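Entry 14. Structure prediction run on the chain below.
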Amino acid sequence: MKTFVRLIRYCLFMSVTAFSAGCHSSDSAATQPKAVISQKVPLPDIPSASGIEWVGDHYYVIGDDSPYLFCLNAEFKVVQKVPLLEADSLVEGRIPKTVKPDLEAITSLTLDGQPYVFIIGSGSTTARHNGYLVPLSRQGAGKPVLIPLQPLYDQLRHDKSIIGEATLNIEGLAADEEYLYLLQRFAPGGNNVLITYTLSAIEPYLSGKGPAPKPNSVQTWALPEMEQIKTGFSGLAQALGGRLLFTASAEETPNAVLDGEIYGSLVGWLKAHTADEAGHLAKPQVVVPITEANGTPYKSKVESICIIEEDRHHLQAVAVSDNDNGASELIKLTFSW
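Output returned:
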């Protein structure tokens, strides 16, 4: 029986690779896409890691139930801890689930010439509607500026093309020179959705000088299953050539709030500004399971990713993962396609 179960799981794992092959562009079809972990680093001082961004020679990491922004050096050591919010009810360094801010995503962007990291809550409950702009300088991260996101999230929450019959649950965030991107994570009754704003439209809102804008575009995406469990977007990073690097994970859960068993994670490429075929969900250019060095699936929930080196057909990335028990891990991986 155990042999049979292992065979079934292997076949399901290979089906994800087959899905990727169907999305893969012909100019690199001779190369089998893969994403292999080369290094793992436990993060004992960072609970429930949910977002990572690389700026200069530092990594900026958040946790979904932590009140801090953590700054790590190139050796992945914490060198600065910036309070984002007051938290009076920490339990072993974690904010209780019912009141946690659920900070799920982080990106770097520049407003009026000042570089920031922008951090956002998921929007899945009323306690999760805040964002923070943290100014960056040579001295490190400065004092956070609270950004109330409820007006923006209320627009998204009432748009059925975004939430379907599920609830709002923003899990990914990225920005390039022209656009800000949000990822809505799949939950039963909903879809995986890429929400795009022009920076020119959203900058006044983030600066407190204008109303919440409407999205520039909304795209629904088809992702492969893992072990017959639907996968949902979990992280996003901007890349060269107008592409977006995304992560997704398979978690058996009935909604956007409860945790569930984790079956693995994916990484792949999205092309944001492409026309959808009528009646068809958009598909990633490439998507593959994240594996251990020995080729077995990485059985953890990758929450966020950042690119540290990029070439034509491969890149080096650093990601963070969380298994919902508070333990966090940083992984370094090579993605080839």
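Residues 2-6 have pLDDT under 50 and may be disordered.
Filed with the rest of this week's runs.
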